[in-house]
Design goal:
With 494 residues, the protein is α+β, with helices and mostly antiparallel strands. It is 34% helix and 25% strand. The protein has 17 helices and 24 strands.
Length: 494
């Protein structure tokens, strides 16, 4: 067992900061790496040391393995934490780190490699009889053969890239006459995005829920699960709202899915934190989707309902320590919801927005957590993922978590760019979400361009005007020349 004294975080932004904070609580020094665009970033300022690794584009900085390993050796760091995204699920990087005599805070290169391909992941899971969506269990290249199999499975079907993710290389085919064209498009997109045109087909679940199970495994053979997260509110196959626990799982279903997730992890002797993803159909039957061999963006909701710091557990496991608790020690306490706050315009098909954070004031109060990597006056760079922050709320039950999220969204002040805060409030207030009766088609079913009308931007403008209004005035003028009573000014006089 080796004690880690210094960790290099091979990432940026909010996840780099989040990892550094847990490391600091464990008495471990941290090293930041940064690109030209991130010279003044918060994670660079927070770390004990920082190393410049290249130009702004990620393929010239955060994706350059040798630069990161060299930075680790230069600073004497014992270990590398990859965070998520970038090189976090790159088996070659994990191998290069190990070859340099550095601890990789994550699973083995073999586990990453197997689970990084949907087909080899399915093959591993099948050894434990994990439920699978009907379809092909291997890559299929012959269009005629693929079409025959699709007819056998039954339309609608889904063509998926074996090396895919984020909806790339994925095509829904509802009619047999469209199959050949859609397969050609899926292969082309997969080749372009992943350098691997392998595709497979499976039955398309028409009203799916996306449920994932958090697991932890150590080097002593212990693997356990930390319950589920419901990640069904998505746009472009990417998650926007996540919650824990799910509003629809029974204790019996939760136990079955948890056992399956543990078995999937056991199939590759998994160590560290990972997530096994399932799809639930309208009958609440579940099927294996894939395994993510890293920390998830939405891990805070699991931390809040279990009281477990997943980053600390990752570090302890990497040091060779056994997991300090048993499955029976874990209980679900309360409910947590996460909203990914993106620099995107929901009223313009969620297209990314860039600019300067002219106003940036985060919400406060009971049950509110904000994981971010920005502060007022900073610019949103165009080179990376447009997520600004993760807004997480916790309550004694789902209703309290939702109402806290609404309050937090109202208190979150961001001007200078358009964000998904308004969309988050739309979700929280929608009857389908409040009742728990929704699926991954939530956006397609209920959200339309123009529904938000930039309400959040108007609220932020009003807040800015209030702050600049003379203290002896009790009314303010809105941009449309209407007047309203200012509660802040009124209450000062009472």
């Amino acid at each position: 067992m080796k004690t880690i004294k210094k960790i290099l975080i091979a990432n940026r932004g909010e996840i780099a900061l989040r990892i550094m904070r847990s490391a600091r609580e464990l008495g471990i020094k941290t090293v930041a790496v940064y690109s030209e665009a991130d010279r003044d970033a918060l994670h660079v300022r927070y770390a004990d040391e920082a190393v410049f690794i290249g130009e702004a584009p990620s393929n010239k900085s955060y994706l350059v393995m040798t630069n990161i390993v060299d930075a680790c050796l230069k600073t004497g760091a014992d270990a590398i934490h990859p965070g998520y995204g970038f090189l976090s699920e790159n088996a070659g990087f994990a191998s290069k780190v190990a070859e340099a005599g550095i601890i990789f805070i994550g699973p083995s290169p073999n586990a990453i490699d197997i689970m990084g391909n949907k087909l080899t992941a399915k093959a591993a899971a099948l050894k434990f009889n994990i439920p699978m969506v009907p379809g092909t269990e291997e890559a299929i290249e012959d269009v005629i053969e693929a079409k025959a199999r699709a007819i056998e499975v039954g339309f609608p079907i889904l063509i998926k890239a074996a090396a895919g993710g984020g909806g790339k290389g994925m095509r829904i085919v509802e009619h047999v006459g469209d199959f050949e064209e859609q397969m050609a498009l899926a292969v082309s997109e997969a080749t372009s995005a992943f350098g691997d045109g392998s595709v497979f087909i499976e039955r398309y679940v028409t009203s799916p829920r996306h449920i994932e199970i958090q697991i932890l495994g150590d080097t002593h053979g212990n693997i356990l699960h930390l319950f589920e997260r419901d990640c069904s509110v998505q746009r472009r196959h990417q998650k926007v709202v996540e919650e824990a626990p799910s509003s629809i799982l029974t204790p019996e279903k939760r136990e079955k899915m948890g056992k399956c997730a543990i078995d999937v992890a056991r199939s590759v002797n998994y160590t560290g934190a990972g997530t096994v993803e399932f799809i639930l159909d309208e009958n609440l039957d579940f099927y294996f989707l894939e395994m993510n061999t890293r920390l998830q963006v939405e891990h805070p909701v699991t931390e809040l309902i279990t009281g477990i710091d997943l980053v600390k557990e990752q570090i302890k496991i990497a040091q060779g320590e056994p997991i300090s608790f048993k499955q029976d020690d874990l209980k679900i306490n309360g409910h947590a919801i996460e909203l990914r706050v993106y620099a995107e315009d929901p009223d313009n098909n969620f297209l990314p927005d860039i600019g300067t954070l002219e106003t940036y004031i985060t919400p406060k109060g009971p049950g509110i957590r904000v994981d971010d990597g920005f502060e007022q006056g900073m610019e949103i760079p165009i080179y990376y993922d447009p997520m600004i922050a993760k807004l997480i709320t916790y309550g004694k039950d789902r209703e309290e978590a939702i109402s806290r999220m609404e309050r937090a969204i109202d208190e979150y002040q961001i001007t200078g760019i358009t964000t998904t805060l308004g969309f988050g409030k739309f979700v929280m207030q929608h009857e389908a979400f409040k009742s728990g009766n929704f699926d991954t088609h939530f956006v397609k079913k209920y959200f339309q361009t123009g529904l938000l009308n930039n309400d959040n931007e108007s609220d932020a403008e009003i807040a800015a005007i209030v702050m600049n209004t003379l203290l002896n005035e009790n009314q303010i003028i809105l941009p449309n020349n209407e007047t309203v009573e200012s509660n802040w000014l009124k209450n000062r006089k009472e």
